[in-house]
Amino acid sequence: YEIINPVITHTEGSQYVQEGCLSVPGKRGEVERPMVVTFEAYDRNGEKFEKTVSGLFARCVCHEFDHLDGKLYVEIADNLCSIE
Known about the structure:
Structural class: alpha+beta
Helix content: 10-25%
Order of helices and strands: EEEEEHE
Low-confidence stretches: none
Shape: globular
Strand content: over 45%
């Protein structure tokens, strides 16, 4: 997906699952994220669109949008641990 200047406009529910990231190799931690996320953004042609995603896709959207704000999951993770 190509998502330009996304803004989350609505969230529902929650999921609390272990996350990892290539930006922080060898670590994992439990993170609470919304179960459903609606966001607005622009496509490569400058057209605005809205999308609602759920489950793992919602988790990924939040994780990646955090990167756009300079945040890493380790800043909000519980039970952070090293993995082999």
